[in-house]
TrEMBL record:
GO molecular function annotations of the record: UDP-glucose 4-epimerase activity
Cofactor: NAD(+)
GO BP of this protein: galactose catabolic process via UDP-galactose, Leloir pathway
Family annotation (NCBIfam families): galE
UniProt name for this protein: Unannotated protein
TM segment ranges: none
Organism from which the protein derives: freshwater metagenome
Coiled-coil segments: none
Pfam families membership: Epimerase
Length: 319
């Protein structure tokens, strides 16, 4: 079996590519290196292709044929919520145009298995704390919209030409499975706090009067290594005949508040830093925790790591 991993030079994609490679699967990477790093995919066949460009379909078809690709894990996407509000056209063009080219190439070459990187951003601001896949999705920004439409594109391909697909809705991904695959962007809480500590500045906590035990937001942090293993489970699941669902949450089913994350970072780093309270941000739900019963039951996948392992591995990888 050979698996094409789009976005394989990215933070999550490189973990997926490496875990597949280590389990004996042939891996081919497609990544335009807009945020990815070549150093994460040394030794893997890699095409520096931007998926939404004209001609991308034929390049993909040639790659799929040459490497006898039988399944695709599609992670390549722009993922900055704020940027997506300011440049919605870019997000629709690159995320959805890229996916349209990818699906066309898969259809033309008969590659019928897809695992798609979706996001808890598909849910928007749900009115429940524990979010199941049955919650009606209602994304509140262009980024989240591209993820939900990406799921629909996969479902339409199933109807039209028999694509088998799974969309994984990741919650808050953090940690590192290997030190050279650290999350080097400063977009999520843990890397942002580490960057502030390295710069000698105070990290910010946005909001302290949410209806939560310590007043700060609660999120479900999933270790990137556990998430990578969920992709392996999803690929296996696509080989089974008794599939009941296409959409799965990936999280731990447990929440940690921003203050608890700060406390864990203090414990792990040994740095007794202070943080600054800042006003709430628009669109931040008080609590967002994945209901993970579906993926637990149907794919037999469970997260193995908690917040301590996440923070420790992330800190080790950047130290
Ligand atoms: N990090 C998270 O917490 C999180 C949460 C939910 C969903 N996701 C999704 O997971 C996927 C991977 O995220 P990540 O955190 O690893 O981000 P990342 O930016 O590290 O990885 C994305 C990779 O895709 C590549 N890429 C982007 N657009 C491309 C295009 N048009 N053509 C070819 N390559 C392109 C980038 O160079 C990069 O290597 C994304 O689809 C993202 O939406 C991430």
């Amino acid at each position: 079996m050979s698996v094409l991993v789009t976005g394989g030079a990215g933070y999550i994609g490189s973990h997926v590519a490496r875990i597949l490679q280590q389990s004996g699967t042939n891996v081919v990477v497609v990544d335009d290196l807009s945020t990815g790093l070549d150093s994460r995919v040394l030794g893997l066949p890699t095409s520096h292709l931007e998926l939404s460009t004209q001609g991308a379909t034929s390049t993909l078809e040639a790659l799929m044929t040459e490497h006898k690709v039988s399944a695709v894990v599609h992670l390549a996407a722009l993922k900055q919520v704020g940027e997506s509000v300011n440049k919605p056209e870019q997000y629709f063009l690159k995320n959805l145009g890229g996916q349209a080219n990818l699906l066309t190439a898969m259809r033309n070459t008969g590659v019928k298995k897809l695992v798609f990187s979706s996001s808890a951003a598909s849910y928007g601001v749900p009115d429940v704390d524990l979010v199941s896949e049955d919650q009606t999705p209602n994304p509140i920004n262009p980024y989240g919209q591209t993820k939900l439409i990406g799921e629909w594109m996969a479902s339409n391909a199933e109807t039209a030409w028999g694509l088998s697909h799974v969309s994984l809705r990741y919650f808050n991904v953090a940690g590192a499975g290997w030190d050279d695959l650290a999350d080097t962007q400063k977009l999520n809480l843990i890397p942002i706090v580490f960057a502030a500590l390295k710069a000698g500045s105070k990290p910010k906590v946005f909001g302290n009067d949410y209806q939560t035990p310590d007043g700060s937001c609660i999120r479900d942090y999933v270790h990137v290594m556990d998430l990578a293993k969920a992709h392996v489970a999803a690929l296996k699941y696509l080989d089974t005949d008794t599939r009941a669902h296409n959409v799965f949450n990936v999280g731990t089913g447990r929440g940690s508040s921003v203050v608890e994350v700060m406390d864990q970072i203090k414990t792990t780093t040994g740095i007794d830093f202070e943080y600054e309270m800042a006003p709430k941000r628009a669109g931040d739900p008080p609590s967002l925790i994945a209901d993970v019963r579906r993926i637990n039951n149907e794919m037999n996948w469970k997260s193995e790591n908690g917040l301590a392992e996440i923070v420790e591995s992330a800190w080790k990888a950047i130290s």
